[in-house]
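$ ./design --mode recover --in tokens.txt
reading tokens...
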């Protein structure tokens, strides 16, 4: 979602965003602090292209990520996104997709079938990794959907709660 800030200059936008982020962090800690773990982003200094992430998690299978993005070119717009962010998803990415990519790169670089048709050495390794990325992502998505099937409703309700916690401070575009 894109929100319009009610300001006319860049420095005022930076100050308004700083106030909003500190108030939002306090509100999220207050609302979710007892039941969930709230992890705040590190970069609070606002520069030309700025992004800030807040993660709200409960265990490995339940979680949401609130991303705030702002660009100096469009200083009156603040982009807010809420997505599912579970630790199990990260574990699966590191445990399934990356090994697939490494094996694909190895097969391409060393001319092992079925990737022996790829040209060059470095290019073959890179293309082999990209080709192996696709089945790795498919397998990861299937396993993740099976594992998180029971927690899908709770993740959706958490996303909605986090999005509603941002409040109606700005005008929605």
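writing sequence...
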């Amino acid at each position: 979602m894109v929100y319009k800030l009610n300001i006319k200059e860049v420095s005022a936008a930076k100050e308004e965003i700083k106030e909003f982020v500190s108030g939002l962090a306090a509100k999220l800690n207050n609302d979710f602090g007892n039941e969930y773990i709230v992890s705040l982003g590190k970069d609070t200094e606002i520069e030309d292209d700025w992004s800030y992430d807040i993660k709200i998690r409960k265990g490995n299978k339940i979680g949401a990520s609130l991303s705030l993005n702002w660009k100096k070119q469009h200083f009156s717009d603040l982009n807010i996104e809420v997505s599912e962010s579970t630790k199990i998803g990260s574990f699966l990415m590191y445990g399934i997709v990356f090994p697939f990519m490494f094996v694909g790169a190895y097969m391409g670089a060393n001319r092992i079938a079925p990737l022996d048709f790829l040209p060059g050495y470095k290019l073959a390794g890179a293309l082999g990794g990209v080709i192996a990325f696709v089945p790795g992502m498919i397998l990861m998505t299937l396993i993740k959907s099976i594992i998180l099937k029971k927690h899908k409703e709770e993740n959706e309700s958490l996303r909605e709660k986090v999005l509603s916690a941002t409040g109606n401070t700005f005008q929605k575009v």
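exit 0
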